Amino acid sequence: MGGSFRKFDYYGKDSFVFQIAGSFLFFRILQYVVRWYLFGNGRNQNSDSSRDLTVVPPNKKWRISNEAVSLIHSVASGLWAAYVLLFYKRLFEDLINERTQVALELVYVSFGYLLHDFFDLVVNEQSARIIELLFHHIVVITGFIVTRKYLGVVMFGLLMEINSVFLHTRSLMNLYGVKKKSTSFRLVALLNIITLAVFRLSVSFYLVYWAVSNTSFFLIFTISVIFSLFCSNSVLAYRVMAADGLFGMI
C-alpha cells in the first residue's frame, strides 16, 4: 500500500511557518493546561505528604508537566512516523529524494514541539542535564533546517519516539515516587529497554550503515547529524540500563 507522491519543496511555501508556529503555540498552551490539571485547585492531594503534588517544589512541578507534554508528543510522533514508513513505501525505499505531505506535516509538528521544548528548557532547567538535552535539540532542529532533502531519514529519526513513550513514562514514575521494585515500574522499564533496542539503537545502526553506504550523495553535515544522534542514543542506552541495574549499578 502506498501513498500519492509529489515533489515537495521542504520549505518552499510560506504556510510551513504558520504550521510550525501553530505547533509551537499548541505545545506551549498544552504545557500550561497539563500543569493546571495536575497541580491546580488542590488536585492530587494525598494523605501522604510525600505524595502530595501540590506541595512539591516548583521545579519538580515543571519537570512533571514537561515530561507529560513530551510523552504526548512521543505517542503522536512515534505512531505517525511508523504509519508513514509502513504505508508510504517509496519514502522508505528512497530516503533522500521522496516526499509526501503527511511526512512533511509531521516534520512541522515536531519542529514546533522541539522549539517549545528548547524554550522551556532554557527558561526552567536548573541542572547540568540541560547541556545534554540542548545538544540533542540543537542537532535535531539543525537537521530539520539544513537537510532539506532526506525526509525519509527524518522519519526514521522520529520513529525513535516510540521508545521515548516508555522513557518519559519511566521518568514520570520516578518523579511520582513509584518504587523501582514494583510490578508496574519493572514492566515499563522492560518495555523501555526493548523499544530502546528496537526503535532507537537498531534504527541508529541502520542510519549509520546507510550514511556510510551513501556517502557520495551525502553532505558532510548530514553525516555529522546522524553520527551525533547515534552517539547520543548510545549514551542514553548506557544510562538507562545502568539506572535499571543491568550493569550492577543503581
Percent of residues in β-strands: under 5%
Question: What's the total helix number?
Answer: 9
What profile does the largest beta sheet have? none
Order of helices and strands: HHHHHHHHH
Oligomer: single chain
Structural domain tally:
1
Protein name: TLC domain-containing protein
Organism: Angiostrongylus costaricensis (Nematode worm)
GO cellular component, one term: plasma membrane
Subcellular location: Membrane
Describe the structure.
- It comes from Angiostrongylus costaricensis (Nematode worm).
- It is found in: Membrane.
- One of its GO terms (cellular component) is plasma membrane.
- The chain crosses the membrane at residues 16-38, 68-86, 153-173, 185-211, 217-240.
- The protein is an all-alpha fold.
- It has one domain (14-36, 57-244).
- It has helices spanning 15-39, 58-87, 89-93, 101-124, 129-146, 151-159, 161-175, 183-213, 220-243.
- Helix 2 (58-87) packs antiparallel against helix 7 (161-175).
- The longest helix has 31 residues, at 183-213.
Structure summarized in a few sentences:
With 250 residues, this protein is mainly α. The chain has helices at 15-39, 58-87, 89-93, 101-124, 129-146, 151-159, 161-175, 183-213, 220-243.
